[in-house]
Task: structure prediction
Amino acid sequence: MVKRIVPALVALMAAACGGDKECKLDDPKSCSDNLVCESVSGQDKPMCFAPLQVEGKVFDLGSGAAVANAEVTALDVNGAPASGIAVSGPDGHYALRIPTQRSDDKGTPVPVRLTLRAGAQNYQPFPSGLRVALPLDTTAAASAGDEKPWVFSSGQTDVGLIGLAAAEQGRPAVSGTVELATGQSALVVVEGNGHAYSAVADTSGQWKVFNVVPGGGYKAQAYVKGSNYTAVDVSVQPGVETTGVAIHRAGDSSATLSGTVQLVAGANGAGTSVVMVVESTFNTALIRGEVPPGLRAPEPGTAPNISGAFSISGVPDGKYVVLAAFENDGNVRDPDPNISGTQISHITVTNGTPSASPSFKVTGAIQMVGPGAGETSEVVTGTPKFTWKPYSSAKSYELRVFDSQGTNVWENLSVTPSTSGDVSVTYGGPALTPGLIYQWRATAKGNAGNPISNTEELRGLFSVQ
Result:
């Protein structure tokens, strides 16, 4: 007897296999145009499914207008590229495909945690300056039907960009490729003439930096854990994008940075983390910069837990700033310049050998009340009032407010501790621009007027409605 196959089942099988082609993970053409080939949990063979997409809108943070031709990409929890590049349309909308494993043969995506990066001509890149990219989780992704994409969209997938000053607009981009082995990820920095522009290469090795001041004397360098690269000379012409800058691998990097962290009185005993920032990207006012993927202790994706010795392996040759207690872990680097282990550490790695072995003292952070005491920027109305919990042993405080690029817009260097309850100071500087991001920071000072603690570097973000 000849068994009949229901036509609908034939259609389903054809869709699952991309027609009569075999589904192969390394061959995107093995599925039909609207499907992707991905592995299934617990199964040996991959199948074709509707893609997982992160969708959102890129907009001007000041005016709310759509930003067209912005480039958006995603990074995983390790800072490695998790996608290609999506370009926003005239309405600012983008759709970014995210490769992922499937939990069943129906194509349900396994949730992933991501952060977004975005850049566009005439806008500050995101993240940069004060602004950090918060993780988003695709658990809520949903499909509208068979062969319809699984879409994750939320307020976090909309990206607001800050416009550059008029004198900084109209500058060209620089783009190219970086040679990567499977599983590697690269931070690319174009630096020279007192400027540094950075991007993380996507899964294909493509990268682009926007708004580069024209001129010669630039070098494009890739920072990849475990590898060294040969820097490429770059000359930027006015009004013309510089394309085809190819950065090639020069060999392995076996350098290991070792050091110690000492948790002093008041520190969160759970521990902290240490990161390495490319020196040319370091903002001294904001005390932050670009961290190449993987140059962190403990390993990326692990909660801060360093309370003694630490090491970071596979460090490429280059110049770095080493930061301890940079994340929101209840700790800060002890800011007292009169004792050892409190200075910001600058390290050069040459031929696989670090120039120093840094040691840090870490203390408890001043606890913020608001605005911006949480993980996100807080919108305030009227004149902001900055409030924090009293810090043990503080005899006075300093308060500073920075704009998104680290310019000090106002300060009060003599704040008297409260005799009871929280400490509060009302903003008294020039008018703040609605829609733009600012950060406030408080510093506690001891008997001798020396700083003894700060609020955490990644908190205190706010904007005026």
